Amino acid sequence: MTPGEMVAVFGAGAGAGAVNAVVGSGTLITFPVLLATGLPPVTATVSNGLGLVPGSISAIIGYREELKGQRRRVLWFGTGAVLGGLTGAVLLLTLPASAFERIVPALVGIALVLVACQPLIAARVRRRRREGGSVHRDGGPLLFIGLTLASVYGGYFSAAQGIIYVSLMGMLLDDTLQRLNAVKNVLAAVVNTVAAVLFLFWADFDWTAVVLIAAGSALGGLVGARTGRRFSPAVLRTLIVSVGALALVHLVLQ
């Protein structure tokens, strides 16, 4: 890797860390850069997954205030993230790279619609609670299964993983978007870490790329979290939908 490529990979890692902390889809920044340095697709995916772990952790630190009072929820969803992330990582190492190509754009498109409609969905959840309807505090089995399946996808590739998380939680939980975003960062960190442990033993990766992305994403995660926490719900939702739309176009055209 040339010095210029190293600078580009570090910069991409910083950008991905910041975007992941606020929205998700940071992989769409780092992955093309790694491919441009000459890494094979699977090696680039694995190196990217390893490198983004510090960024996920720094995003959690940045959103620690929004995580207060959500320990039970995080532990419950985190269990599904462990199972899903491990499954997705195994699929990455065993399935052809094109296995998810057709379903991923559809998942991202549905997620964007759900995020955009989150205020209406949240209002309906609150109304059902007032009327004595059966609304589970933590989303019930449906949300757990949905987040676990999203974690399978995250362990496999992770582009727009965070957007899918936020859309599912926004549909079934009555909570603020910033608090849901904080949980999203924890789930992404769990998936990335579980996949990283598996990759360390059974996958080929590039240590230079891993270290550069790790350093950049750790810095970017802190900056992104500090900035993202100041956004109003409307601004944050608009940002999520905008970045997600760009991710969708990229996935469809690639």
TrEMBL record:
Its main location: membrane. It holds the Pfam family TauE. It is found in: Cell membrane. The chain crosses the membrane at residues 45-63, 75-97, 103-121, 142-166, 186-203, 210-228, 234-253. InterPro entries: TM_pro_TauE-like (IPR002781), TSUP (IPR052017). Keywords: Cell membrane, Membrane, Transmembrane, Transmembrane helix, Transport. The keyword Membrane applies. It is a multi-pass membrane protein. Belongs to the 4-toluene sulfonate uptake permease (TSUP) (TC 2.A.102) family. PANTHER family: MEMBRANE TRANSPORTER PROTEIN YFCA-RELATED, TRANSMEMBRANE PROTEIN YFCA. This is Probable membrane transporter protein.
